[in-house]
């Protein structure tokens, strides 16, 4: 059973390269499959090209979905990165 959380991007430049890299690296440290959903598209959160291809702007609502053995821990960690990087809430 997957876990998910929706967050709002508050950074005025949206999800740009540096925080996207931090997110991808953090996602890659967990076994769970992790996807990011935005604007009707779902991409692998462990893929920097996938994350950048979405062009997520300020004010966007994104959904993080984790599915696997450490899914809750992974989801919590990603949400924490979004907050600590000042990306969103």
UniProtKB/TrEMBL annotation:
<dbReference type="GO" id="GO:0016740">
    <property type="term" value="F:transferase activity"/>
</dbReference>
<keyword id="KW-0963">Cytoplasm</keyword>
<dbReference type="InterPro" id="IPR000032">
    <property type="entry name" value="HPr-like"/>
</dbReference>
<dbReference type="GO" id="GO:0009401">
    <property type="term" value="P:phosphoenolpyruvate-dependent sugar phosphotransferase system"/>
</dbReference>
<keyword id="KW-0762">Sugar transport</keyword>
<dbReference type="GO" id="GO:0005737">
    <property type="term" value="C:cytoplasm"/>
</dbReference>
<comment type="similarity">
    <text>Belongs to the HPr family.</text>
</comment>
<protein>
    <recommendedName>
        <fullName>Phosphocarrier protein HPr</fullName>
    </recommendedName>
</protein>
<comment type="function">
    <text>General (non sugar-specific) component of the phosphoenolpyruvate-dependent sugar phosphotransferase system (sugar PTS). This major carbohydrate active-transport system catalyzes the phosphorylation of incoming sugar substrates concomitantly with their translocation across the cell membrane. The phosphoryl group from phosphoenolpyruvate (PEP) is transferred to the phosphoryl carrier protein HPr by enzyme I. Phospho-HPr then transfers it to the PTS EIIA domain.</text>
</comment>
<dbReference type="InterPro" id="IPR035895">
    <property type="entry name" value="HPr-like_sf"/>
</dbReference>
<keyword id="KW-0813">Transport</keyword>
<dbReference type="InterPro" id="IPR002114">
    <property type="entry name" value="PTS_HPr_Ser_P_site"/>
</dbReference>
<dbReference type="Pfam" id="PF00381">
    <property type="entry name" value="PTS-HPr"/>
</dbReference>
<feature type="domain" description="HPr">
    <location>
        <begin position="2"/>
        <end position="89"/>
    </location>
</feature>
<keyword id="KW-0808">Transferase</keyword>
<dbReference type="InterPro" id="IPR050399">
    <property type="entry name" value="HPr"/>
</dbReference>
<dbReference type="InterPro" id="IPR001020">
    <property type="entry name" value="PTS_HPr_His_P_site"/>
</dbReference>
<keyword id="KW-0598">Phosphotransferase system</keyword>
